[in-house]
Write a structure and sequence with these properties.
Blueprint (H helix, E strand, L loop, with lengths): L24 E7 L13 H7 L2 H7 L3 E7 L18 H20 L3 E6 L4 H15 L4 E6 L20 H5 L5 H4 L13 E6 L4 H10 L3 E3 H7 L1 H12 L5 E7 L21 H13 L3 E7 L10 H13 L6
Parallel strand pairs: 1-2, 1-3, 3-8, 4-5, 4-7, 5-6, 7-8
Helix pairs in contact: 1-11, 3-4, 8-9, 9-10, 10-11
């Protein structure tokens, strides 16, 4: 298990990998769901990442990797929308329960959960499993949310009814009771233990929720002004003082569509190729990542698996891959 350790040297520009990193076991878990999204295709994301050589790339870096396969999820065509403000809620909750159990079990075994999606509703189960594990072990979880969107809608504010726009709000205790109380308790996270990075598409109602919770948000405007390195360095420096488990939730639509065209909900003006890699390289340098999920790769909209190849390289950067 990757445990975030206090270090006397606060300079994150130095490579400070723990000696134990290359001995870690990584469990790849697939979440092939598009029920939470408004566009079909992200259910094929896990397959696209495997085709792009995810396991082989991590093994080349020295890790022991076990691909546990995908969860079984009922397809959209075999279901009905019961509530237009919470589309496919029953199946999402049912699958998220299995998903959360699996994440918690992987962590309890001392392995690293590498969660590949699938739409970002996967985070409901991912964060629940992590929070449950942390609660049992008297640890404080923190989440770095790298995304074009805040995903802070509720059933009362959603313009679409798509649950992939709600997971962070639900994890923070905001929204429909079935989502908020999922896995038996709420909240799973505290606002001060979250950081949203690369945000550039926020609904008006989400803005009010964000202000109410005083949620730390770093928009693309902040990245333009301060630089990606300064922001991630600042976030990691703050997190190491107050949390024990850092989860990275990486939505590939955080990257600009010119670089990653095959994503569920593309938004112009995102992270550049190097900015995205720098974020993940900085995470690796502080040896602080305890779990990782990547979401919203959509092969239907992609160009010769370009986005999946990029995503695999970003994951590898998070595990220590370097130019030299």
């Amino acid at each position: 298990m990757f445990i975030f350790k206090q270090q006397k040297n606060k300079d994150f520009t130095q490579v400070t990998y723990l000696n134990t990193m290359l001995k870690e076991n990584i469990s790849i878990i697939g979440f092939p769901m598009d029920l939470g999204a408004g566009r079909r295709g992200v259910d094929m994301g896990p397959s696209a990442l495997r085709i792009a050589g995810l396991q082989q790339k991590l093994e080349k870096l020295g890790y022991k990797v076990n691909d546990t396969g995908d969860l079984k999820i009922e397809i959209m065509e075999r279901q009905k929308i019961k509530n237009p403000h919470l589309k496919y809620l029953t199946e999402i909750l049912k699958t998220s329960k299995v998903w959360a159990d699996k994440i918690s079990t992987v962590l309890q075994k001392g392995e690293f959960p590498l969660c590949i999606g699938g739409d970002h509703s996967m985070a409901i189960g991912t964060i629940s499993g992590i929070a449950s594990f942390c609660k049992k072990n008297k640890m404080i979880p923190g989440v770095i949310w790298i995304d074009a969107h805040a995903d802070m809608n509720t059933d009362k504010t959603t313009p679409s009814g798509n649950i992939h726009g709600m997971p962070l709000a639900a994890s923070l205790g905001m929204g429909n009771k079935k989502l908020v109380n999922f896995y038996g308790y709420t909240p799973k996270l505290l606002p001060e233990n979250c950081a949203l990075i690369a945000i550039r598409s926020i609904d008006d109602a989400e803005k009010e929720i964000i202000k109410k919770l005083k949620l730390p948000v770093y928009t693309m405007q902040d990245i333009d002004k301060l630089g990606a390195h300064k922001i991630i360095e600042m976030v990691l420096d703050q997190f190491r003082k107050k949390v024990d488990h850092i989860h990275i939730s990486f939505d590939v639509d955080s990257v600009d569509p010119n670089v990653a065209p095959g994503v569920g909900t593309p938004v112009p003006g995102g992270l550049s190729f190097r900015e995205a890699h720098l974020l993940m390289e900085s995470v690796a340098e502080c040896s602080c990542m305890s779990s990782l999920e990547v979401a919203e790769v959509n092969p239907i909209l992609d160009d010769k698996n370009k986005s999946a190849n990029l995503t695999v390289d970003l994951i590898a950067s998070g595990f220590g891959q370097r130019i030299l």
